[in-house]
Amino acid sequence: MAPVDPHSYTDSLQPLTTHVALSLSLDFQSRSISGTATLTLTRPYKGQLFLDTRDLRVHQALDSEGRSLRFSLDLEDSILGSRLVIDLPVETPWIVVSYSTSPHASALQWLEPSQTAGGNQPYVFTQCQAIHARSVFPCQDTPVARVKYTADVEVPGDTRVVMSAAHLERVSLDSGRAVERFVMNQAIPPYLFALAAGDIVHEEIGPRTRVYAEPSVVKAAAYEFANTEATITHAEALFGPYEWERFDVLVMPPSFPYGGMENPRMVFLTPTLIVGDRSAVEVVAHELAHSWTGNLISNATANDFWLNEGFTTYAERRIVEAEQGKDRVELQIGLGWSGLKEEVGRFKDKPQFTKLKTDLKGVDPDEIYSRVPYEKGFHFLRRLESQVGRPKFDKFLKEYIAEFQFQSIDTETFLAFLKERIPGIGDEVDLDKWIYGEGIPVDALEPRSEILDKILELAAQFESGRQLMDADTQNWQAQEWIVYLDNLPKKLSSKQISMLDDSFHFSRSKNWEIRVIFLTIAAHCDYKPCFPAIEDALHSVGRIKYLRPLYAGLLESSPEAKQLAKRVFSDAKPKYHPIAQSVVQGLLTQAGL
Ligand code: BES
Ligand code: ZN
């Protein structure tokens, strides 16, 4: 036995899957998907085959001749799920597995009509990263096993389906149900498999972009993301042609656990971005940037996650710089920098998680998810850029993408390529310290700009009683406010908090970043007048980025605040995605609740 990935049962002695054909039927009543997965192997194979599953019921396995195959499901591992072992007594080029998913499948969230914007139809969506594809279909759930796929998805007649794939056709059935057919002809890691079904409509916003959303949301969404084609054009100038043909976006229900997910051809976005001011550019730029860094070149395993997120954060900021200028980006980098320092503090007792290259054997990747791979990865690449100069680094980036596209690589492969293309770089930058060392290397370039410095100064002066004046904030957009709030002291008096809220109404800001940073301070400081707003926020959105600090803030606060956290979670839990549920549950457990 030789595992290729600490988070998968995939065995290096067995052939990988190259193609998955799914034939699925969605049942909103029983909250289950049932159907077949046909897995084609790199070569005809005889022997044992190991697949990843989580909470799947496997009904039958057949070989290419229709012969029934013996199989067994191992006991469940809490992180990996259950290994499915299939015996192939005769060589077979493919296998067909019939199965159904559990109502508790970790990738799937089933929403009642009342949990959608429209309130009339149920909705379901997947979130497969990090290791949840295995709860939707049996597979070799490691990015190393890149697959093309087709999917036929049967749904109720009034339901629309979107996927991370090209839509082929919709066929109405006599039963009143319908089948939507999709094909994905580019090989992707299983974590990029994606599906959503519900009352979904779309608007064209560009030559290769539509915004998909529920009918009551789609207009506002189309407005918010109207500049997407310009963003794609900037990205192509930096990183080469966009290889995925279409760049559509789906605006999710509020319980979507992330800001964005880079599902190819169909990025999933949180509705919290829809503020009406088009301020969400960096999230769109980020998910778009994954089209090169993450989707074309993927991390081999979660140990190399920084190759996905560090490169993408770097690429995102290059795109935003091209679109909006250096000042805007420096604010973003400033926010990231303070976030990085905070995370390094959070991992004080587990400093191994502040390395770029990690060893996550036995560790749930969702549990140690942090800003470190994003921000430290970004700073590593920025350090390299500053060493060799931008023109040379840009050339290197394009070569890197061309060399490894449609592959899943590890950190060492990247390092070897870097040293080959930029000889001597290892003498100028301490690569080992950046990759294998803990914390923030001393040669990281601290963000600075006139506006950033000014805001940091204003925030620092708040303690000594200096309040914001109209003249300070005249030209401020959301970003400036966010940086300001983010840099205020974490302990404020009730008087200070109420003064801020009376002047600026942060606790009900339309901008969720602003609202949550402020409410987190309020939670920390046991500021009870904001408890209703906190409760409201925890009921309204399921984005982990917001749930985590709000719950953590309450849990580190007074006994009443802790009780509030406990009560709100027990009320709101059914609204959260399974991944978000387990993150919050982890916080409560840690706090002894
Ligand atoms: N791929 C990530 C989201 C993710 C990571 C989901 C790991 C599950 C496991 C996505 O690209 C991302 O980074 N989203 C950020 C956007 C932000 C950095 C602009 C988010 O959701 O906050
Ligand atoms: Zn990302």
TrEMBL record:
Q: What is its subcellular localisation?
A: Cytoplasm
Per UniProt, which keywords does this protein have?
A: Cytoplasm, Hydrolase, Metal-binding, Metalloprotease, Protease, Zinc
Among CDD domains, the record links this protein to: M1_LTA4H (cd09599)
One matching Pfam family is: Peptidase_M1_N
Q: Which cofactor does it need?
A: Zn(2+)
Q: Where is it mostly found?
A: cytoplasm
Q: Which residues form the Peptidase M1 leukotriene A4 hydrolase/aminopeptidase C-terminal domain?
A: 450-588
Q: Which residues form the signal peptide?
A: none
* Gene3D superfamilies named among the record's database cross-references: 3.30.2010.30, Neutral Protease Domain 2 (1.10.390.10), Peptidase M1, leukotriene A4 hydrolase/aminopeptidase C-terminal domain (1.25.40.320), tricorn interacting facor f3 domain (2.60.40.1730)
| SMART domains assigned | Leuk-A4-hydro_C (SM01263)
Q: Does the keyword Transcription apply?
A: no
Give the family, as the similarity comment puts it: Belongs to the peptidase M1 family.
Name the chain's protein. Peptidase M1 leukotriene A4 hydrolase/aminopeptidase C-terminal domain-containing protein
